[in-house]
Design goal:
2 copies of one chain form a homodimer.
Chain A lengths: L2 H31 L6 H20 L1 H16 L6 H22 L2 H24 L2 H22 L5 H9 L5 H24 L14 H14 L7 E5 L5 E4 L1 E9 L6 H19 L16 H15 L3 H14 L1 H4 L4 H8 L13 H20 L7 H13 L25 H17 L5 H6 L4 H10 L9 H9 L5 H16 L2
Parallel strand pairs in A: 1-3
Antiparallel strand pairs in A: 2-3
């Protein structure tokens, strides 16, 4: 095969794998949005087979020969800044890394794990509904056992948790996270204390009766406002909101969950997932059906979702801009609410049970709890059966609240049931990245005015130029370096939070 | 490979192919129920690749060697009535038939056709919405061209339409259909004339305002009433109602389309698709993930869907049984309607535009028109561009009505856009099979009383015993022979129709 032919084969291989990913993602999406209750094992059957096929294609001798020959070819060459070469080098790197990891895991175990995840997701749904941790525990045990085993196969010399943290946010380790959370904690805890000493904000009008149909209209209004292309991004409902690409960034799906007594939960989940979707769908069009398509890491991903959710979505400008629409949709509860009242209510800071509904100040403590629990579980210092009581103990310790049941505690998030161990710290990192992006963005964009006017085009354009378009072409560190032109500094995030909340609470 | 191993491989191969079918069917289902508008070409990309993979697996030398060796082994043996042997023989026959046909079609053409169908389905939706036949015509031309070409590859000595008729209903040909439609026409035309001479039935109360939410409740009530297992059968909305299995009969989906001005359209589509789903989900559990899973032919399939829709669903007993529920859901329009008025309105017989909403008497004429048009198109005696005018001419001739636009004419059905040429006659055959099943069923089941009491268990049990459980194990002719113990006779269907409608119209 000559060079041209090899490159063609490289693209063809990625296209082929993307079709399998499309199928497997769609089965997952169908399972949690539409499928009838009794169909999980049927889906596990098909998912297992298709995953096995992907595994076979990825690790076949043809694939390995192709990738290794190309890898050698590029190693023998000098690196140029030809964009096509940069792309090809990165594709080869990403594919080889994945496949070499995959090859270290015996196929039967890999496939069995995929099937386990499909069933576990299903059991978690029931367990959450009935607040029955015991039902879910055997699955979670098996997931932690497998995750530990797989890390051992792939990186026998590395700490298990370090391995998994690096999978979700390349470049990150426990040492980095420990330091990062220490910085956050040292400034968050006093801030939370100061806030709690101030008179409480009234958010009673956010709680009432908000029909699903109007909430659905609000979702679509918000998707348009943040300029999501609804021809390429769908919205469905599910237990735990998430975002997925199907086949390529040309078909993106976000999901939400409507609570008729509190519209802000769904509202901010739509903006959050919308941020993920903006990032994915903003990939260079030419990246479709390649490994460069879509976001590079969970940290950068969360920097975008949390940026739209909080930095934009909970800003004074944004809440003022959308209030007329909210008054129109929910006149009974909202028609007499002022911009100031709405802004403050949306930013009410107080320790609470549910991470996805937490305010910006306490949010990172929710993440820290999960980080510490994952650390203990993977080190073998905590068993799954003791997880709920340890969860509840930490919520009492860090947030000062009692967890009434596992539905509002350890069963609240879907991540663990989907095998996402090591993912949570990305949320906190994303928050911090986002605040630093904002600071940089403000050098050239009048963010406050744009948001106040409901014109997010310049904001999106900055993100597209510096982040979205690159998909997975650059590492998280490269993205940060190129966009910020200065080192990552979590203090910027703390400055942002302190400024915002001191103003709100008159501290 | 010894015999045991070969049989194991045979099952494994079928399981593997069922996972691909799951993926491709789910992408189709997603496309017409949930997917955002601009995603068809993304789906076509993945569907094309997965179809190509299926094609490769099916026609690989390993597959052929396995099947041909088993085929030879069973040819060399005497046929016994061992149930396992019967299953294996049938699996080998069905797989070899499909694969040999497939092998005659060049892979690129096969894959290109699958991709064409995904796009064509999408264009048809838009074309129907805007009543723009010209938009759809190039796709339909390409479909007819391909269908003609493929028949030529697979059965060069056979008439093209005979080939395709036989694909949907094995054993059927133009000669059979011509004779069948002649019988129907000779008794339908005078019956329709007699009905038209009688005073018209009042069905004005069926037209009004019926909110989607209540119609959705009615759908779920009906699914329960016909005893569909909702843990394994989902309901979604789409432009053109259909039924599909995903991976196996353990995950079945039906769809409907709510019209807020006429609830009977969706109501009967749910019962119709529900009949298909009962048939599929009634397969022997052990058939899951094999080619024996699900119904054997479109004729037998429609015999079940049309049986539940009409013979059960439009019977006096059924309409009386459901009327209280309908009054409860739609009190404004329905609270003063009597059982007799409801029964008659539901069975109002008059020439109309839309096949799926046609009464039992005129229905077969809708099918006959499509049969005659397909015959002309495939013979090259009609061009696609002249199809709408010929459609309209035939509606005038056979049903005496003017077609106002293509949306209510040639664009109404999705079949052609999905490549289903030769499918339509199955509806008429299914009607006739169903009436003969009823006659036989009545020998042992008090159908009228069961239906009146809303207890469909004995009716379902008869169908399960004689039809459903066999999936694709027997040919349509064998199913009919085993269930009826007498030859198929369309006169029985005409007797049923004449008796029912003479009573309703007092002829």
């Amino acid at each position: 095969m000559n060079h041209e032919e090899s490159i063609q084969e490289l693209y063809k291989l990625q296209g082929r794998l993307s079709a399998y990913e499309h199928a497997v993602s769609l089965m997952y999406y169908d399972g949690v949005t539409t499928a009838p209750k009794g169909t999980a094992s049927n889906r596990a059957h098909s998912t297992g087979i298709l995953t096995e096929e992907m595994y076979r294609i990825s690790t076949s001798s043809e694939t390995m020969e192709l990738l290794e020959a190309l890898d050698q070819e590029y190693r023998d060459r000098e690196v140029t800044d030809d964009p096509e070469e940069t792309k090809i080098r990165r594709m080869i790197y990403l594919m080889l890394k994945d496949i070499r990891d995959m090859q270290k895991i015996p196929m039967e175990e890999f496939v069995a794990y995929q099937e386990l995840l499909v069933k576990s997701e299903d059991v978690w749904h029931t367990a959450k509904e009935t607040s029955d941790f015991a039902l879910f525990a055997p699955y979670l045990e098996e997931i932690f056992r497998t995750v530990r085993k797989f890390a051992g196969y792939c990186a026998p010399d590395k700490n298990v948790y370090d391995y998994w943290l690096n999978e979700y946010e390349p470049g990150i380790s426990m040492a980095v996270c420990d330091e990062f959370f220490r910085t956050l904690k040292s400034r968050l805890v006093p801030l939370i204390r100061e806030i709690q000493e101030r008179p409480q904000v009234d958010d009673s009008f956010l709680h009432g009766y908000f029909p699903v149909e109007q909430q659905d209209q609000l979702s679509r209004y918000l998707m348009d406002l943040i300029r999501l292309d609804r021809d390429h991004c769908g919205l469905s409902t599910t237990e735990h909101p998430f975002t997925t690409s199907l086949g390529s960034h040309l078909d993106e799906r976000i999901t939400t969950n409507y609570k008729t007594d509190y519209f802000a939960a769904s509202m901010y989940s739509v903006i959050h997932e919308g941020g993920h979707a903006l990032y994915d769908t903003g990939s260079d069009e030419a990246f479709a059906y390649t490994v460069l398509d879509g976001g590079v890491s969970m940290g950068i991903h969360e920097s975008q979702s949390r940026f739209y959710e909080n930095i934009i979505g909970r800003s004074r400008g944004f809440t003022s801009h959308i209030l007329p629409k909210i008054r129109e949709l929910f006149p009974e509860s909202m028609s007499n609410v002022t911009e100031e009242q709405f802004y403050k209510a949306i930013n009410l800071a107080q320790p609470s049970l549910i991470r996805t509904e937490a305010d910006e100040v306490t949010y990172c403590l929710h993440v820290m709890i999960r980080y510490e629990l994952e650390k203990l579980l993977l080190a073998g210092d905590l068993s799954v059966k003791d997880l709920p009581s340890e969860w509840n103990r930490k919520y009492k310790e860090y947030l000062g609240i009692e967890v009434p049941d596992d539905r509002h505690g350890v069963l609240q998030d879907s991540h663990w049931s989907g095998g996402l161990i090591g993912y949570f710290p990305s949320y906190a990192l994303g928050n911090a990245y986002g605040a630093q992006f904002l600071k940089k963005m403000k050098e050239t964009v009048d963010v406050d005015r744009c948001v106040q006017n409901g014109d997010l085009a310049p904001v999106n354009e900055w993100n597209r130029t510096h982040i979205w378009q690159y998909g997975s072409l650059y590492t998280p560190a490269q993205i940060l370096e190129r966009a910020l032109k200065e080192p990552f500094d979590p203090a910027i995030y703390m400055d942002y939070l302190e400024k915002k909340y001191r103003e709100i609470y008159g501290i």
